[in-house]
Write a structure and sequence with these properties.
The complex is a heterodimer of chains A (about 230) and B (about 425).
Chain A: E1 2-6, H1 10-22, E2 26-30, H2 33-42, E3 47-51, E4 53-54, E5 57-58, H3 59-68, E6 74-79, H4 84-93, E7 97-100, H5 105-119, E8 127-129, E9 132-135, E10 140-143, E11 146-147, H6 152-163, E12 168-170, H7 171-179, H8 190-205, E13 212-215, E14 219-222
Parallel strand pairs in A: 1-2, 1-3, 3-6, 6-7
Antiparallel strand pairs in A: 4-5, 8-9, 9-10, 10-11, 12-14, 13-14
Helix pairs in contact in A: 2-3, 6-8
Chain B: H1 3-56, E1 68-71, E2 78-86, E3 91-104, E4 107-116, H2 118-152, H3 155-166, H4 183-233, H5 239-269, E5 277-280, H6 281-291, H7 293-298, E6 302-307, E7 312-315, H8 317-333, E8 340-345, E9 349-355, H9 383-393, E10 397-403, E11 408-414
Parallel strand pairs in B: 6-8
Antiparallel strand pairs in B: 1-4, 2-3, 3-4, 5-7, 8-9, 9-11, 10-11
Helix pairs in contact in B: 1-2, 4-5, 5-9, 6-8, 8-9
The chains are: A alpha/beta (about 230), B alpha+beta (about 425).
Chain lengths: ~230, ~425
């Protein structure tokens, strides 16, 4: 899957590049409006990550260009301007999602995956991981071909792990993904642990290994290998 | 004190002094003129009597003893004042008298002519009466004139004052002051227009600065957060580094939350949320309580929601969301395990009561910025400030009371 990262801040661009490449995406980058404009005119991408404030132009114009060209690429806006207007305008122009800076890389990845899943009609639409298979369209979870019943929160949690396998997910990133702004108030994240414990138990009862490991002091990780 | 009252006081003082002096001078003047007149009449009478005595060679007949007396005893010649008992008036009456001597048939007689002064004092009375009436009328009309002047002449001033009261720094249109032909007022209006222009320019510059600063801060925060998350992914991250990385990461998140809260506060203060629509707060509370279910379960709290009447407030949906979230989150976060949370809503108020730790000091102080009940808490202590700011923005009021009996904390929003 081919992704274009349009971001003028070099360290952030490199972090995004590194994170997404690690996940098997084919990534290209553009550091300014001019480069980005050339690339979207020349090549096809599955998704474009657009920073709105570029030194030589407005990212919203890139979204306009993509839509004017009837590009099939998904668009995810990244903005440091925490303005509601930008968000509304961006989504009205046809962007698929909007993420305000600063964001968790895992959250970005989850949003990117969701966009790609929605857009790829011909491709495989399920997520598979070892004994696990998830069909997000039907919210169906299978362990060794057998369906497992999960609560809404447990399902969200599992999907977040599946979109970020082999990554340390911090409790903060998990809380923010699942509880949104309300996560701010959680001084302790004990209740994450409760949900996680239930999820682990249900998966193990269905015959899966304990994939979700606690990384001491940092967070949790979905392990690909034993 | 009103300007009019002050000027009226000075007018009154001036008029009183002028009238006192004027009345005194008039009194003395008129009295002097009247006596002069009487003296002249006495002299005329004197000349007439002498001529008659010379022609007839006999003394005139004494018809009224109060007006003419004839005596054989010598008297000092000339004009003088005297008091004579008047049986009709039953009092001593002032008289002016003129004495002189005549020679009739070798015999010397002393004649005294008198004229009553009682009429002159009556004249004085009339004069003073007229004076006081005039003074009263003059002062009364001055007061009325001033009232009229203040209504008409000062009208531009009152219009300026009204425009100033309506003026808001945040509004895009400049201060509009009506034109006036009076120099003083047009100078005042000019000075005010210039002042507000300068202040508006400063305000805009400051606002732009805040916005740019906010934007410029978000980017490095995003870099820090992304880099720290990358660092955590390293499979060979030494255990000794994990803890500092985690602390840095948490601090970055705190900073970013703080930054978002401050940006929101300054946006509310700058009145950047102009779109408003009716929002059903009771429905919003129900929604938010649903979203907080996990947090409520974790604390074993069963919220009680009582809606006596639907509460609809015209406000920006984002701010309504922020208000309700902040109040409810506050009530959950500072609650006790197994505590209580009651929400009561009627057509004008939203009241959130929760059990919590006892509070020392003034509860309203916790609405201030960076005020925290628990100083060691990770949260920046801006939630209630934001709630208060939102309430104030829509003309509502947020009050915080604490009842030590049962340690109930009550936050009440009145619209």
């Amino acid at each position: 899957m081919k992704v274009l990262i349009v971001e003028d801040e070099t360290p952030l661009r490199l972090s995004l590049l590194d994170y997404l490449r690690h996940d098997g995406y084919v990534c290209e980058t553009a550091a300014n409006y001019q480069q980005a404009h050339e690339k979207i005119k020349l090549y096809q991408y599955d998704c474009v990550l657009v920073d709105l404030t570029l030194p030589d132009g407005n990212g919203l114009d890139l979204v306009r260009t993509l839509k004017a060209d009837n590009s099939p690429a998904g668009v995810l806006i990244l903005s440091a301007r925490d303005g509601l207007d930008d968000k509304i305008q961006g989504l009205e122009l046809g962007a698929d999602d909007y993420l305000a800076k600063p964001f968790h890389l895992a959250e970005l990845n989850a949003r990117l995956r969701a966009i790609l899943r929605r857009r790829q009609f011909q491709g495989q639409r399920h997520l598979a991981f070892r004994d696990l298979m998830v069909w997000p369209e039907q919210a169906l979870v299978l362990v060794q071909e057998q369906p497992v019943t999960l609560t809404r929160k447990e399902y969200d949690l599992l999907l977040f792990f599946l979109t970020n396998p082999n990554r340390v997910l911090t409790k903060e990133a998990i809380a923010e993904h699942i509880w949104g702004d309300a996560a701010d108030m959680a001084d302790s994240f004990d209740f994450i642990y409760t949900h996680l414990k239930n999820l682990r138990k249900k998966l193990q009862d269905a015959g899966a290994d304990n994939y979700i490991r606690t990384i001491y002091g940092l967070g949790y990780k979905l392990m690909a290998e034993e | 004190m009103k300007l009019l009252t002050t000027t009226n006081r000075y007018y009154l003082a001036l008029v009183t002094v002028l009238f006192a002096v004027g009345t005194g001078a008039l009194y003395i003047g008129i009295q002097h003129a009247l006596i002069e007149e009487v003296d002249e009449q006495l002299e005329l009478h004197h000349g007439f009597l002498r001529q008659r005595i010379r022609e007839t060679g006999a003394l005139p007949p004494v018809t009224s003893p109060s007006e003419l007396t004839i005596s054989r005893h010598p008297r000092p010649a000339g004009l003088s004042d005297t008091l004579i008992y008047d049986p009709t008036e039953r009092s001593q009456v002032p008289f002016r008298e003129l004495s002189f001597s005549v020679q009739v048939r070798g015999q010397r007689y002393w004649l005294t002519l008198r004229k009553s002064l009682i009429e002159t004092s009556e004249v004085l009375g009339v004069v003073l009466g007229v004076m006081f009436t005039v003074m009263g009328l003059l002062f009364g009309s001055l007061v009325l004139l001033n009232r009229w002047l203040s209504r008409w002449l000062w009208a531009p001033f009152h219009r300026t004052l009204a425009s100033l009261r309506r003026y808001r720094l945040q509004q895009p249109q400049a201060l509009e002051l009506p034109a006036t032909p009076i120099d003083e007022f047009s100078e005042l209006n000019q000075a005010l227009a210039q002042l507000t222009q300068r202040v508006t320019a400063d305000y805009r510059a400051l606002k732009e600065f805040t916005e740019n600063a906010a934007h410029e801060t978000q980017t490095p925060l995003a870099i820090m957060q992304a880099q720290l998350e990358q660092l955590m992914q390293l499979p060979d991250l030494p255990a000794a580094a994990a803890s500092p990385v985690r602390e840095l990461y948490r601090a970055t998140l705190r900073l970013s939350r703080l930054h978002q809260a401050l940006t929101l506060l300054s946006k509310i203060e700058n009145r950047q949320f102009t779109d408003a629509q009716p929002v059903r707060l009771d429905a919003l509370v129900r929604d938010k309580l649903g979203q907080l279910q996990d947090f409520l379960d974790a604390q074993r709290i069963e919220p009680v929601l009582q809606v006596a009447a639907p509460l609809s407030v015209t406000m920006h949906p984002l701010l309504a969301d922020s208000l309700v979230s902040n109040l409810l989150q506050n009530a959950v976060k500072h609650n006790l395990p197994g505590g209580q949370l009651h929400v009561q809503i009627d057509a004008r108020t939203l009241e959130i009561r929760n059990t919590g730790r006892p509070l020392a000091g003034e509860p309203m102080q916790l609405l201030g910025r960076f005020r925290k009940h628990n100083a060691a808490s990770d949260s920046p202590g801006l939630g209630l400030s934001i709630a208060q700011q939102i309430c104030a923005h829509y003309g509502g009021q947020l009050t915080y009371t604490f009842n030590p009996v049962g340690a109930w904390h009550t936050l009440r929003v009145g619209f």
